[in-house]
Amino acid sequence: MSLTRREAIRSGALMSAGLVGGLAAVAQTGNRDGAAVESPAGRPVPKLTKRTAYIAAYDTESPRCLAAVRKIVEVHQRFNFPATFFMVGRTLEGAPEEYRRLLDDPLFEIASHTYSHRLLREHPLNNDKGPRPDLRKEIFESKATIERTFQRPCLGIRSAWGFAHGLTGARDVLTLIAEAGYKYSSSQLWGPDYTLPALLTEPYTYLADGHPTIWEFPGHGWHENILKSPTKWGAKRLTLWPAPMPEAIPSTFLKTPDEEFALNRVFLDKAATGTQSYVSFIWHPWSLGAFDPSMRMLEQTFAYVQKLAMKPTTFARFYEQAARAG
Ligand SMILES: [Zn+2]
Q1: CA of 205 to the centre of ligand 1 (A)
Q2: How far is the CA of 49 from the centre of ligand 1 (A)?
Q3: Which of 52, 86, 148, 276 has its CA 20 to 30 A from that of 313?
Protein backbone atom coordinates (compact mmCIF):
# COMPACT_ATOMS: atom_id res chain seq x y z
CA MET A 1 0.00 0.00 0.00
CA SER A 2 1.56 3.28 -1.07
CA LEU A 3 1.74 6.48 0.89
CA THR A 4 -0.15 9.49 -0.37
CA ARG A 5 1.99 12.51 -1.15
CA ARG A 6 0.78 14.26 1.98
CA GLU A 7 1.48 11.23 4.15
CA ALA A 8 4.92 10.90 2.63
CA ILE A 9 5.61 14.55 3.39
CA ARG A 10 4.42 14.08 6.94
CA SER A 11 6.55 10.99 7.36
CA GLY A 12 9.55 12.92 6.20
CA ALA A 13 8.76 15.67 8.67
CA LEU A 14 8.48 13.13 11.43
CA MET A 15 11.83 11.64 10.61
CA SER A 16 13.53 15.00 10.38
CA ALA A 17 11.99 15.87 13.75
CA GLY A 18 13.81 12.87 15.14
CA LEU A 19 10.63 11.23 16.35
CA VAL A 20 10.61 8.24 14.09
CA GLY A 21 12.87 5.27 13.94
CA GLY A 22 11.41 4.29 10.60
CA LEU A 23 8.11 3.69 8.90
CA ALA A 24 6.03 0.86 10.21
CA ALA A 25 5.12 -1.36 7.29
CA VAL A 26 1.41 -1.23 8.11
CA ALA A 27 -0.82 0.35 10.67
CA GLN A 28 -1.20 -2.79 12.76
CA THR A 29 1.48 -4.42 14.83
CA GLY A 30 2.49 -7.97 14.21
CA ASN A 31 0.34 -11.03 14.69
CA ARG A 32 1.29 -14.01 16.82
CA ASP A 33 4.19 -14.86 14.56
CA GLY A 34 5.44 -11.32 14.50
CA ALA A 35 4.37 -10.81 10.93
CA ALA A 36 2.72 -7.55 10.00
CA VAL A 37 -1.02 -7.53 9.60
CA GLU A 38 -3.14 -4.77 8.17
CA SER A 39 -5.24 -2.56 10.36
CA PRO A 40 -8.92 -1.91 9.73
CA ALA A 41 -7.85 1.60 8.78
CA GLY A 42 -5.63 0.06 6.14
CA ARG A 43 -3.20 2.95 6.02
CA PRO A 44 0.49 2.90 6.68
CA VAL A 45 1.51 5.13 9.55
CA PRO A 46 4.80 6.19 11.02
CA LYS A 47 5.80 5.29 14.53
CA LEU A 48 5.24 8.54 16.35
CA THR A 49 7.48 8.11 19.35
CA LYS A 50 10.93 6.70 19.93
CA ARG A 51 9.85 5.20 23.21
CA THR A 52 6.53 3.40 23.32
CA ALA A 53 4.10 5.53 25.29
CA TYR A 54 1.60 4.25 27.81
CA ILE A 55 -1.70 6.11 28.17
CA ALA A 56 -4.00 5.28 31.08
CA ALA A 57 -7.55 6.22 30.04
CA TYR A 58 -10.84 5.97 31.90
CA ASP A 59 -14.34 6.10 30.43
CA THR A 60 -16.04 7.98 33.26
CA GLU A 61 -19.69 7.57 32.47
CA SER A 62 -22.04 7.10 35.43
CA PRO A 63 -22.52 8.24 39.04
CA ARG A 64 -20.96 4.96 40.14
CA CYS A 65 -17.62 6.16 38.79
CA LEU A 66 -16.98 8.88 41.36
CA ALA A 67 -15.93 6.68 44.30
CA ALA A 68 -13.64 4.68 42.02
CA VAL A 69 -12.10 7.82 40.51
CA ARG A 70 -11.04 8.88 44.02
CA LYS A 71 -9.04 5.66 44.35
CA ILE A 72 -7.73 5.83 40.80
CA VAL A 73 -6.48 9.39 41.33
CA GLU A 74 -4.68 8.32 44.49
CA VAL A 75 -2.80 5.59 42.62
CA HIS A 76 -1.88 7.95 39.79
CA GLN A 77 -0.57 10.61 42.14
CA ARG A 78 1.45 8.05 44.07
CA PHE A 79 3.05 6.76 40.85
CA ASN A 80 3.17 10.26 39.32
CA PHE A 81 1.38 8.72 36.33
CA PRO A 82 -0.65 10.90 33.94
CA ALA A 83 -4.11 9.85 32.74
CA THR A 84 -6.86 10.84 30.36
CA PHE A 85 -10.39 10.82 31.76
CA PHE A 86 -13.05 10.62 29.04
CA MET A 87 -16.02 12.14 30.83
CA VAL A 88 -19.69 12.00 30.02
CA GLY A 89 -20.99 15.58 30.29
CA ARG A 90 -23.98 14.61 32.40
CA THR A 91 -21.82 12.62 34.79
CA LEU A 92 -19.60 15.63 35.27
CA GLU A 93 -22.61 17.89 35.79
CA GLY A 94 -23.76 15.51 38.53
CA ALA A 95 -20.70 16.22 40.70
CA PRO A 96 -18.70 19.11 39.21
CA GLU A 97 -17.06 20.22 42.46
CA GLU A 98 -15.89 16.73 43.38
CA TYR A 99 -14.51 16.03 39.93
CA ARG A 100 -12.77 19.40 39.81
CA ARG A 101 -11.15 18.75 43.17
CA LEU A 102 -10.01 15.31 42.07
CA LEU A 103 -8.90 15.97 38.50
CA ASP A 104 -7.69 19.56 38.51
CA ASP A 105 -4.10 18.38 38.40
CA PRO A 106 -1.55 18.79 35.58
CA LEU A 107 -1.22 15.00 35.55
CA PHE A 108 -4.71 14.63 34.18
CA GLU A 109 -6.40 15.38 30.90
CA ILE A 110 -10.18 15.69 30.77
CA ALA A 111 -11.67 14.71 27.41
CA SER A 112 -15.22 14.08 26.27
CA HIS A 113 -17.14 10.81 26.34
CA THR A 114 -20.15 12.58 24.74
CA TYR A 115 -22.80 14.48 26.67
CA SER A 116 -25.07 11.59 27.60
CA HIS A 117 -23.14 8.47 26.54
CA ARG A 118 -24.61 8.13 23.06
CA LEU A 119 -23.21 6.41 20.02
CA LEU A 120 -21.74 8.75 17.42
CA ARG A 121 -22.60 6.22 14.71
CA GLU A 122 -24.30 2.83 14.42
CA HIS A 123 -22.91 -0.15 16.28
CA PRO A 124 -23.92 -3.72 15.38
CA LEU A 125 -24.12 -4.81 19.03
CA ASN A 126 -26.14 -1.84 20.26
CA ASN A 127 -29.73 -0.91 19.44
CA ASP A 128 -29.07 2.79 19.93
CA LYS A 129 -29.01 3.68 16.25
CA GLY A 130 -26.74 6.59 15.52
CA PRO A 131 -26.24 9.10 14.07
CA ARG A 132 -28.94 10.92 15.93
CA PRO A 133 -30.69 14.27 15.68
CA ASP A 134 -28.97 15.30 18.93
CA LEU A 135 -25.51 14.46 17.60
CA ARG A 136 -24.50 18.11 17.75
CA LYS A 137 -25.44 18.34 21.41
CA GLU A 138 -23.50 15.15 22.27
CA ILE A 139 -20.38 16.57 20.65
CA PHE A 140 -20.62 20.26 21.61
CA GLU A 141 -22.27 20.22 25.02
CA SER A 142 -19.86 17.72 26.56
CA LYS A 143 -16.91 19.86 25.48
CA ALA A 144 -18.53 23.02 26.83
CA THR A 145 -19.29 21.37 30.19
CA ILE A 146 -15.72 20.15 30.58
CA GLU A 147 -14.19 23.49 29.60
CA ARG A 148 -16.52 25.40 31.90
CA THR A 149 -15.71 23.11 34.83
CA PHE A 150 -11.96 22.82 34.40
CA GLN A 151 -11.19 26.11 32.62
CA ARG A 152 -8.97 24.44 30.09
CA PRO A 153 -9.42 23.14 26.55
CA CYS A 154 -10.97 19.76 25.89
CA LEU A 155 -9.09 18.32 22.91
CA GLY A 156 -10.48 14.83 22.44
CA ILE A 157 -13.70 12.86 22.20
CA ARG A 158 -14.48 9.17 22.60
CA SER A 159 -17.83 7.84 21.43
CA ALA A 160 -19.84 5.57 23.69
CA TRP A 161 -18.85 1.97 22.85
CA GLY A 162 -16.44 2.86 20.05
CA PHE A 163 -16.28 1.15 16.68
CA ALA A 164 -14.17 -1.22 14.60
CA HIS A 165 -13.08 1.53 12.20
CA GLY A 166 -13.31 4.51 14.47
CA LEU A 167 -15.16 7.32 12.70
CA THR A 168 -13.89 6.38 9.23
CA GLY A 169 -16.58 7.24 6.70
CA ALA A 170 -18.74 9.12 9.25
CA ARG A 171 -18.18 12.48 7.59
CA ASP A 172 -21.10 14.21 9.29
CA VAL A 173 -19.66 13.26 12.68
CA LEU A 174 -16.14 14.27 11.74
CA THR A 175 -17.36 17.64 10.42
CA LEU A 176 -19.08 18.36 13.75
CA ILE A 177 -16.03 17.24 15.71
CA ALA A 178 -13.83 19.58 13.67
CA GLU A 179 -16.34 22.43 13.99
CA ALA A 180 -16.43 21.97 17.77
CA GLY A 181 -12.65 22.30 17.87
CA TYR A 182 -11.66 18.79 18.89
CA LYS A 183 -8.22 17.68 17.79
CA TYR A 184 -8.60 13.95 18.14
CA SER A 185 -11.07 11.10 18.46
CA SER A 186 -10.42 7.90 20.37
CA SER A 187 -13.30 5.89 19.01
CA GLN A 188 -11.66 2.84 17.46
CA LEU A 189 -12.17 0.41 20.33
CA TRP A 190 -12.90 -2.93 18.66
CA GLY A 191 -10.96 -5.44 16.63
CA PRO A 192 -11.77 -6.60 13.09
CA ASP A 193 -15.49 -7.13 12.43
CA TYR A 194 -16.41 -5.85 15.90
CA THR A 195 -14.48 -8.52 17.74
CA LEU A 196 -12.41 -8.24 20.90
CA PRO A 197 -9.72 -7.69 21.84
CA ALA A 198 -9.06 -4.44 20.01
CA LEU A 199 -5.67 -5.04 18.41
CA LEU A 200 -2.62 -2.85 18.88
CA THR A 201 -3.61 -0.45 16.12
CA GLU A 202 -1.54 2.65 15.52
CA PRO A 203 -2.90 6.22 15.34
CA TYR A 204 -4.01 7.65 12.04
CA THR A 205 -5.60 10.82 10.70
CA TYR A 206 -8.94 11.23 8.95
CA LEU A 207 -7.21 12.45 5.81
CA ALA A 208 -9.31 10.19 3.56
CA ASP A 209 -12.50 11.70 5.02
CA GLY A 210 -11.36 15.26 4.41
CA HIS A 211 -10.02 15.94 7.92
CA PRO A 212 -6.23 15.53 7.73
CA THR A 213 -5.67 17.33 11.04
CA ILE A 214 -8.10 15.23 13.10
CA TRP A 215 -6.37 12.22 14.62
CA GLU A 216 -7.75 8.87 15.69
CA PHE A 217 -6.08 7.31 18.70
CA PRO A 218 -7.39 3.75 18.99
CA GLY A 219 -7.88 2.01 22.33
CA HIS A 220 -6.39 -1.45 22.81
CA GLY A 221 -7.29 -4.75 24.40
CA TRP A 222 -10.64 -5.54 25.94
CA HIS A 223 -13.35 -3.33 27.28
CA GLU A 224 -12.34 -4.61 30.71
CA ASN A 225 -15.92 -4.65 32.04
CA ILE A 226 -16.83 -7.31 29.48
CA LEU A 227 -14.20 -9.64 30.92
CA LYS A 228 -15.78 -9.60 34.36
CA SER A 229 -18.93 -11.41 35.37
CA PRO A 230 -20.35 -8.43 37.34
CA THR A 231 -21.16 -6.90 33.95
CA LYS A 232 -23.71 -9.71 33.56
CA TRP A 233 -23.58 -9.23 29.84
CA GLY A 234 -23.35 -13.00 29.47
CA ALA A 235 -21.85 -14.98 26.63
CA LYS A 236 -21.42 -13.17 23.34
CA ARG A 237 -19.86 -13.92 20.01
CA LEU A 238 -16.94 -11.60 20.42
CA THR A 239 -13.70 -13.17 19.26
CA LEU A 240 -12.28 -13.54 15.79
CA TRP A 241 -11.29 -16.79 14.13
CA PRO A 242 -8.51 -17.35 13.30
CA ALA A 243 -7.56 -15.28 16.33
CA PRO A 244 -4.79 -12.73 15.66
CA MET A 245 -3.92 -12.71 19.39
CA PRO A 246 -5.09 -16.04 20.87
CA GLU A 247 -2.86 -15.46 23.88
CA ALA A 248 -5.06 -12.44 24.71
CA ILE A 249 -8.34 -14.36 24.82
CA PRO A 250 -9.03 -15.77 28.29
CA SER A 251 -11.03 -18.99 28.43
CA THR A 252 -13.52 -17.62 30.93
CA PHE A 253 -14.46 -14.49 32.86
CA LEU A 254 -11.63 -13.01 34.91
CA LYS A 255 -11.85 -13.77 38.60
CA THR A 256 -9.01 -11.79 40.16
CA PRO A 257 -7.07 -8.55 39.62
CA ASP A 258 -3.94 -10.69 39.13
CA GLU A 259 -5.58 -12.35 36.15
CA GLU A 260 -6.45 -8.96 34.71
CA PHE A 261 -2.88 -7.76 35.11
CA ALA A 262 -1.60 -10.94 33.43
CA LEU A 263 -3.81 -10.18 30.44
CA ASN A 264 -2.59 -6.57 30.33
CA ARG A 265 0.96 -7.87 30.24
CA VAL A 266 0.29 -9.67 26.97
CA PHE A 267 -0.41 -6.32 25.29
CA LEU A 268 2.30 -4.39 27.12
CA ASP A 269 4.97 -6.95 26.23
CA LYS A 270 3.91 -6.95 22.61
CA ALA A 271 3.77 -3.15 22.42
CA ALA A 272 7.17 -2.75 24.07
CA THR A 273 8.94 -5.07 21.67
CA GLY A 274 7.39 -3.89 18.43
CA THR A 275 7.00 -0.66 16.55
CA GLN A 276 4.02 0.49 18.62
CA SER A 277 3.75 4.23 19.31
CA TYR A 278 1.59 3.76 22.39
CA VAL A 279 -0.67 1.34 24.19
CA SER A 280 -3.90 2.31 25.98
CA PHE A 281 -6.46 0.02 27.60
CA ILE A 282 -10.22 0.62 27.65
CA TRP A 283 -11.01 1.06 31.34
CA HIS A 284 -14.13 2.10 33.26
CA PRO A 285 -13.92 3.39 36.84
CA TRP A 286 -17.26 1.83 37.90
CA SER A 287 -16.12 -1.60 36.72
CA LEU A 288 -12.57 -1.32 38.06
CA GLY A 289 -13.92 -0.26 41.46
CA ALA A 290 -16.44 -3.11 41.64
CA PHE A 291 -13.94 -5.80 40.62
CA ASP A 292 -10.85 -4.54 42.40
CA PRO A 293 -11.67 -2.05 45.17
CA SER A 294 -8.02 -1.79 46.25
CA MET A 295 -6.91 -0.97 42.67
CA ARG A 296 -4.27 -3.68 42.83
CA MET A 297 -4.38 -4.22 39.08
CA LEU A 298 -3.57 -0.55 38.47
CA GLU A 299 -0.53 -0.72 40.73
CA GLN A 300 0.69 -3.90 39.04
CA THR A 301 0.15 -2.46 35.58
CA PHE A 302 1.87 0.86 36.32
CA ALA A 303 4.83 -0.87 37.96
CA TYR A 304 5.17 -3.07 34.89
CA VAL A 305 4.97 -0.06 32.56
CA GLN A 306 7.84 1.43 34.56
CA LYS A 307 9.79 -1.80 34.30
CA LEU A 308 9.38 -1.80 30.53
CA ALA A 309 10.58 1.84 30.46
CA MET A 310 7.49 2.97 28.59
CA LYS A 311 6.66 6.66 28.72
CA PRO A 312 3.44 7.41 30.60
CA THR A 313 1.50 10.25 29.03
CA THR A 314 -1.99 11.50 28.13
CA PHE A 315 -3.72 11.51 24.78
CA ALA A 316 -3.54 15.33 24.75
CA ARG A 317 0.24 15.32 25.16
CA PHE A 318 0.54 12.53 22.64
CA TYR A 319 -1.55 14.60 20.23
CA GLU A 320 0.68 17.64 20.71
CA GLN A 321 3.69 15.54 19.85
CA ALA A 322 1.99 14.06 16.80
CA ALA A 323 0.73 17.45 15.56
CA ARG A 324 4.16 19.09 16.03
CA ALA A 325 5.82 16.31 14.14
CA GLY A 326 3.26 16.44 11.31
ZN1 LIG B 1 -18.63 4.44 27.74
Answers
A1: 22
A2: 28
A3: 148
What separation in Å is there between the alpha carbon of 59 and the centre of ligand 1? 5
More confident: 197 or 24 = 197
Residues with CB under 5 A from ligand 1 (ion): 59, 61, 160
The full DSSP string for 173-227 is HHHHHHHHT--EE--B-S-GGG-SSBP-BPPEEEGGGTEEEEEE---EEEEGGGG
The model's pTM: 0.86
Rounded distance from Cα 243 to ligand 1 centre (Å): 25
Residue 15 is predicted with a pLDDT of 30
Sheet holding 311-313, edge to edge: 278-279, 53-55, 311-313
Cα(173) to centroid(ligand 1), Å:
17
The model's pLDDT over 171-216, given as tens digits with 9 standing for 90+, comes to 999 999 999 999 999 999 999 999 999 999 999 999 999 999 999 9
Give the chain's domains with CATH numbers: 5-325 (3.20.20.370)
Task: Give the distance, in angstroms, between the CA of residue 172 and the centroid of all CA atoms in the same chain.
Answer: 22
**Rounded Cα gap, residues 118 and 123, in angstroms:** 11
What pLDDT, on the 0 to 100 scale, is given for residue 23? 26
